[in-house]
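Reviewer comment 2.1 asked that we show a complete input and output for one of the modelled complexes. We chose the thymidine-5'-phosphate case, as it is the one discussed in the main text.
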Amino acid sequence: MFITVEGSEGAGKSTNLEFIQERLQAAGKELVMTREPGGTELGEEIRELLLGHKHDGMSDDCELLLMFAARAEHLNRVIKPALNKGKWVVCDRFTDATYAYQGGGRGIPMQRIEALENWVQGELRPDLTLFLDVPVDIGMKRAGERSAPDRFERQQIDFFERVRTCYLERARSDAVRYRIIDAGQSLEDVQRDIAKVLTKVLE
Ligand code: TMP
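Response of the prediction step:
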């Protein structure tokens, strides 16, 4: 199983990833927990370029291509080898984030992203994607209470509205792969909903 977890800013992704990890490990699954951009030594260096402020004026195309450069490395060195060994992979963000942020947020045509997706991933797509959804104003307030904002967190509210709209459109268009989790609820309720999805998957 290749599971990806997506969320708007401040949706509680980190806490819930820990919860997912505990649940799957308790069920005896051999797990690889990883993240994007990143997940390899080179990928983590690319992450620093993408999220840090050294290259604040980076062009949108450069940003898109760096996301896929990191992804190519991640797929070849971590994700595919793990899946080939029968392990389960849980990835904190994946290509849906590229559609949402570089496509929806930055306005890069979706066909360009699709072309890169086909090139870099071939046929590989996640088996299950959990989208932790929270209204932008609530999410931004939560995220704002954390550390100094990275290059994406500095964007304005309309950017995040476009990101969220794109995630929701993609999720609603494929009810087999995506599950939308209402992350505006209490943590207890969010985790109850995630647990339900995981129980089904484990069956
Ligand atoms: P996060 O892992 O802490 O959520 O930070 C990663 C940031 O990178 C987040 O703001 C979303 C952004 N991102 C993209 O813009 N495109 C992508 O393809 C990925 C994987 C992440």
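The chain has eight helices and five strands. We note this here for comparison with the apo prediction described in Section 3.2.
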